[in-house]
Batch of 4 targets.
Target 1
Amino acid sequence: MTLAFYGYPADTLEKYKAGIEKVTAADVTRVANKYIDVSKLAIIAVGNEAGDQAAPVYARKVTNVE
């Protein structure tokens, strides 16, 4: 009822779902390559260094910040 209240057609959710299902891994990769500059990308991992889980493997130098 909410979608109809805002003027959306009755098949809005079905069309939305169908559109999402059409997206391929290649589509995601193409768009990521277009918009994400990996030279400016930073990954931050937060946690207890002495935790119970196995330490992650990093491809680059890790800098600990206190």
Note: The mean pLDDT is 83.
Target 2
Amino acid sequence: MGIVGTMLIIIGVSSYMARKRYRFLLRIGILKHWLEFHIFLCTLGPILVLFHTSYKFGGLVAVSFWSMVAVFLSGIIGRFIYLQIPHTIEGRELSLNEVREMKTDVADVLKNSYNLDEETYKLLVKSIKQKVGLYHKKRYCSLFKKLFQG
């Protein structure tokens, strides 16, 4: 199981790196699917290595295992951060200016399609900003509670 787990890790890392770096692989699948495949293999690999050791660690094996766990955890945190970045429907990351333009466009569409007067429009925008702020505050507070309180 240890060799199979190690091979899964090597295949997961190598295939994803190759897909990102070599031009001839650009047409083989969507990068998002390659990333999911990489995450799957690099999650399954350490689990098989863990089963192989019968949960017994000592010496150099312990250092290697905990280094692997640190890399695994940093991958989970990196994936979480990556998911927080807004993307277009094609998968391209949006810049801050593009997000601001989208907000302005939505506000203009609301104002024009519903013929809102200026006072109602400002009230609506203000309430949306408050809701969005509260949503993010609650979301991140609950996330940190989960992470640090176990």
Note: Helices lie at 2-21, 31-52, 60-84, 96-113, 118-149.
Target 3
Amino acid sequence: MNVQLDSALLDRKTVAAKLREQGFRRSPPDFYCVVAEENAALAGILVYYFVAFTYRAKPNLIIKELYVAEPHRSAGVGNLLMKAAAQQAERIGCGTMKWWVAKWNDRGIQFYERLGAKIDPDWHEFQMSEEALRKLAVS
């Protein structure tokens, strides 16, 4: 049991170190984040990055994570974080903002729709596992 706990702690430390490097020590960073706090406690966080998009000749702002701590939900924190992302997208000259939400996340879907977002009916998301991409790479 201690070995598993130590391993999990090591994994979190390794991930935290990688995130510090990728988001805060590289120029430009691999990702950006907006943090909402109340009385020095985390209320929410939004992590995003930019991707060039040739069709519109404008970048896309891609939201990777939006998290609002339970005590702060339905209090406007998510709205403020999304507004901050939209302001960054406008400042950079983005053509769109994109993100993914689990099909079962009805509350999240309703929140995004209230902001004016629409589910894209024209595109399917594909993904390839690490194992599959390694197999393809050596094929």
Note: Helices lie at 2-25, 77-92, 106-115, 130-138.
Target 4
Amino acid sequence: MAGAGRRLRVTLLDYEGYAGEAMAMGERTPVAIIDAAAAARLAIGEALTNIAAADIELERVKLSANWMAACGAPGEDARLYDAVRAAAQLCRDLGVSIPVGKDSLSMTTRWRDAAGQAPAVDTGEKQVIAPVSLIVRRPRQ
């Protein structure tokens, strides 16, 4: 399936049968700038919507979660908590599990910049904080 937003891969286990595996992804990181919990729910929804094109039973779906956050930055720990809580509640409501995942919890970059003048004038510390985000995928099983 080609097209923006459609992330589904389906494979057969052999050349003669009808059994196979499906893998789908979902992410809505830009939404997390406004609402991390909504972005987590949307990521799960996108993965499930993408995999709906495959002949699969919802109760057999197991997801993998890749959490990213700038832990320790003001407000980011609470946003991560809200996102995890929202994702967990949605999965319980739908009967879908997330038995595996990983995290990247240092999504902050800091540096000092010079103005480029001679002598170099320090313009102070710069910082970029990535929004809390969840990349969900239904791995091959």
Note: The mean pLDDT is 83.
